[in-house]
Amino acid sequence: MVKTLSELYEKVKVDENYVRVSKDDLFNFVVKVFMKLGIPENDAKTIADCIVTADLRGIESHGVQRLKRYINGIRMGGVNLKPNIRIVRDGPSYAVVDGDEGMGHVVGTFAMRLAIEKAKKTGIGVVVVRNSNHFGIAGYYSMMAARENLIGICMTNTRPLVAPTWGIDRVLGTNPISLAAPMENGYLLIDMATSTAPAGEIEIRKRKGDKIPEGWVLDKNGNMTTNPDDFFAGGALLPLGGFGELYGGHRGYCLAILVEVLTGLLSGGSWSKYVGETHQKHSDVCHFFMAINIENFVPLNQFKKALAKMAEEIKSSRKHPEAERIWIPGEKGFLTEETRLRIGIAIHRSVFEELNKIAEDLGIEKLKLIS
Ligand code: NDP
Description:
This protein is α+β, with helices and mostly antiparallel strands. 40% of the residues lie in helices and 17% in strands. It folds into three domains: 1-75 and 333-371, Hypothetical Oxidoreductase Yiak, Chain: A, domain 1; 80-196 and 243-297, Malate/L-lactate/L-sulpholactate dehydrogenase, NADPH binding domain (Ribosomal Protein S8, Chain: A, domain 1); 198-237, Wheat Germ Agglutinin (Isolectin 2), domain 1, CATH 3.30.60.50. It is built from twelve helices and twelve strands. A seven-stranded mixed sheet has the order 2-3-4-11-5-6-7. The site of NADPH dihydro-nicotinamide-adenine-dinucleotide phosphate has 30 residues, from α6, β7 and α11.
């Protein structure tokens, strides 16, 4: 059978170790899990939407494979299930929000909605957040703005996982940065950790029994390693590339500090060195959200056309003889989403088994496979 372009381009390399579930089944399952744990239905839906969006776009590291971690975090009392999310300072185009230790997805959605509202009124909205928790994929929030014809920018700090260039201690976060913008016939979506990989990616390698590429992780003594276990035994991720330095790219290091400044420092919260894990009280994860109303700067259609033209010109430039094609950031993720909405979301068998154990434990219906 001839495969469609989308089927050929799932972001994750799916092999016989993966099974497929429908998006709706997975969403309903995740909603039930969080409701069972005491989270109100609307908030459970927000969290589920963010987690399932990650799986839809092929971002395995932040999909349902993280569910167990969130559950443990909640059970150990590290999350406020019914937070009183408060605006502690604000003006027409900015705000500082206290997340009251709520789930990061709920706090993040609140904050990006606020940034969007302000941008629509004033041309720009910047909302910084302190006292939150892990919020999943940064691109979820920047896309909220892009879908309303605004440019969305989002960043978060994380618990300390990354060594600075030439350092070996975990002091910085994996600190992702995302920018989304509407273009004719789609969106641009940049969404990336500022480290060589997110921690979740190392979990995936471990789960699959794979090695990690050289240059990603130092063990706790500062030696380069390809064994994922060394990371979990206290090793550190390295900042995103420079000129192939083995001890962390200075550019990723600079970007990680940029994120620390705009999240923890600007919100009056913690920078990554002092950020805790979800199961800890007052983990104080901090976020940054910005929405820019394009219309205030340039006619919207002109911007969307220009962005699409730029993307097309980049894609039609000469490619390497061994490359299939040139991609625009977000394109692979959206193709994966389109495919998975049609044929189901691929999840690793071991994650599927873990989800069924969670179902048994919480007394909810198990997840069905697509036959
Ligand atoms: P990737 O390295 O997979 O992708 C980074 C960006 O590059 C994406 O926008 C991606 O678009 C784009 N891209 C990938 N390949 C190409 C290509 N060949 N040509 C053009 N663009 C390309 O992401 P990361 O592993 O760095 O991050 C994964 C996720 O983890 C992100 O969603 C991030 O927000 C999240 N994260 C969350 C953290 C948290 O604490 N909450 C911490 C760290 C990361 P596309 O998707 O289309 O491939």
